[in-house]
Amino acid sequence: xxxxxxxxxxxxxxxxxxxxxxxxxxxxxxxxxxxxxxxxxxxxxxxxxxxxxxxxxxxxxxxxxxxxxxxxxxxxxxxxxxxxxxxxxxxxxxxxxxxxxxxxxxxxxxxxxxxxxxxxxxxxxxxxxxxxxxxxxxxxxxxxxxxxxxxxxxxxxxxxxxxxxxxxxxxxxxxxxxxxxxxxxxxxxxxxxxxxxxxxxxxxxxxxxxxxxxxxxxxxxxxxxxxxxxxxxxxxxxxxxxxxxxxxxxxxxxxxxxxxxxxxxxxxxxxxxxxxxxxxxxxxxxxxxxxxxxxxxxxxxxx
Length: 303
Known about the structure:
Elements: H1 2-20, H2 43-62, E1 70-73, E2 76-78, H3 80-96, E3 101-104, E4 109-110, E5 116-123, H4 125-130, E6 136-143, E7 146-154, E8 159-164, E9 168-171, E10 174-175, E11 188-191, H5 195-198, H6 201-213, E12 216-218, H7 222-230, E13 236-239, H8 244-256, E14 260-262, E15 276-279, H9 284-291
Parallel strand pairs: 3-5, 11-12, 11-13
Antiparallel strand pairs: 1-2, 3-4, 5-6, 6-7, 7-8, 8-9, 9-10, 13-15, 14-15
């Protein structure tokens, strides 16, 4: 009887994950051989997908009628939805993988011998409070100092991004790649602006100079931006005030989609450091130059 109950639960779990990847789509029914069934992801990745999906349902129940808003900082709100989603994620993952630790934005820290989950239950809280759809659930698995898997769900848009180290990046079951734009004039960037930017005159001038070189500059949160860089919808993202839960899953998505992720000076990416620069790779050196006050090489701009 116990085995039968477990089997039923596992099948229900698998069905919920498959729904996230476009219903009954399978590798055999996809075109071009670039899809894979979700069952080929690791158990940890499948658990992260299911946890993100459940958290997304919590957020959507609160969306448009947000209550329980308080401030962690002068411009850093948190809502009852944030804390409820994180609690649900933590409990779900702990039940399946009790030996994996947990680091969450809303204050949950649990050590574990088998790595740690790095979780932002609601990336883009201000957008969420404002009724904008640009918010995300972000879950990453880190082991031995490397991000091994990541899932980012955009609940309001119905988009689920998943990556595993060495196995590519996926959006709703379809393989994704970064853009092929090679000129800044053809690029749309997301640059996160906060008080650390507005209070630095030289940096403001560098960003203004870069904005004049590219097609457009947007301001989105890290989870949304990095997922969209991975999907080729944005060409680059920069931030200098990131926390690990902001960028861990998204950095893996960009790397697995063929992009490049570093710190602001082109050094290896470290989720514990506050500055991240992610791009399609082709424009990365232009972005490093512009953001560090160096001349951008000829050929990067408008014809």
